[in-house]
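Deliverable D5.2: sample structural annotation.
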Amino acid sequence: MEKTEIIHVRIDPRLKKESEEVLSMLGVNTSYAVNIFLQQLVYKQGFPFDVSLPSKEDKEKIEKMACAINMTGGKEPSKRTKKIIHLYINGDIDYETAVFAIKRSLSNE
């Protein structure tokens, strides 16, 4: 199929840079990624991923996690803190454990 249509989208420069870095690691460009997204949108007759607002509980957890991370004083989190966040994101530890571990990690630094 011949590709003749052009889509112009305005996005934040930082988002563009960061997304292009990820796409590069995946071996594709932005145009290819947008095509995949649109093909899946048509195939699924909706977004190809869950689109919803976080629950009140999730918002509170996100805010508490942000506060725990903010305890780094605005500097880059340590490798240990990043590992804790990674474990939480992957579901390997629960929220309370993650916050406890981050606070403990920061108090030991």
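Annotation notes: The helical segments are 13-26, 30-44, 56-70, 79-89, 95-108. The mean pLDDT is 83.
The annotation will be released with the project's public dataset once the embargo ends.
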